[in-house]
Amino acid sequence: MLSAEEYNNILWKLDNIPSTYTATSEETLNQISQTVTTSFNFTLDTESMQTRQRKNKPVLIQIQALLSNNFSIILIFEMCHLPREHTTTFYLIKNLLTTIFNSSKPIYIWGERDELTPFAIYNLFSETQLLLAKFQNLQDTFKEQWQQHVPHLISTISSSDPTSECLCEQCIGKNSHELWSLQDALFQSNLKEQQQQDRQKLSIYAASDCLSMQHLLIQTQIITTAPTAITTTIPTTIHPSNINRENLEPISFDDTQREPEPEPEEQQFTTTVSNVFTTTTEPIHDNDLELISSDDDEHHLP
């Protein structure tokens, strides 16, 4: 018969299947913690996976720290690959999140802070910390600004569609109480033809929602600079030659339409904080993109 310690050890191993990544060093985590203290704003997004006959499982937190000198860093926390709680690495990850949530700087999210509550089970932060953090709901702000600055227009073009030029909520199919998805907000606020054609490219970036919120913060003039996204990506066993790009899907599936590509001058990198795994790389190019989502139509766990 297994002892309680042996049982808990086996249970932990089943819930924490080893990752293929290389662990982030403690030195790197300390450097990241020091860096985020200089941030003047944050954006945050979460992802969950559907599980059969159970509540969705919280699996990912994405945080972008907007820094001075037009730079930013994106952190990706993988909940399913966290180290054990008694380890130094776990403590450093927890300390990093504490630094962010205890900051007096705004943390912009697309929705309510309640979406973070399910993540408290991982003991990286408490529900009390979430209540005290300075979250700003960018979703509400965007809707208010759209209603104020995009009034109804009468079309000047002779057409069977009298509202073909109008972008007010009613004419684009939104009622006055309906919330905007992040994808719709990006699509409607970037109406250049090329941007419309390329709006799905960011779907293969794990940090796309954070970058999208950064873009909207600039569009709505909440912030006035466009930081270059400096991040750290994770080497995996997946290679670009093995990727079937026709099957690429975002881990977030609020909408089938994805956001536009960032401005050309912006360089993108990514930091994944999981077991914790991170390696600094060169700027990401289209040929180097890798997914953290599956190729299935929907994400499911047994």
Provide the fold topology.
Elements: H1 4-15, H2 26-36, E1 41-51, E2 57-66, E3 71-78, H3 88-101, E4 107-109, H4 127-132, E5 135-137, H5 138-149, H6 182-188, H7 193-198, H8 208-219, E6 228-229, E7 271-273, E8 300-301
Parallel strand pairs: 1-4, 1-8, 3-6, 3-7, 4-5
Antiparallel strand pairs: 1-2, 2-3
Helix pairs in contact: 2-3, 6-8
Please provide a written account of the structure.
- With 302 residues, the chain is an alpha/beta fold.
- It has a domain of 194 residues.
- It is 26% helix and 14% strand.
- It contains 8 helices and 8 strands.
- Strands 1, 2, 3, 4, 5, 6, 7 and 8 form an 8-stranded mixed β-sheet that branches.
- A hairpin with a 4-residue loop joins β2 and β3.
- α2 packs parallel to α3 and α6 crosses α8.
- The longest helix is centred in the first third of the chain and has 14 residues.
- The two termini are 27 Å apart.
- 32% of the residues are buried.
- The C terminus is likely disordered.
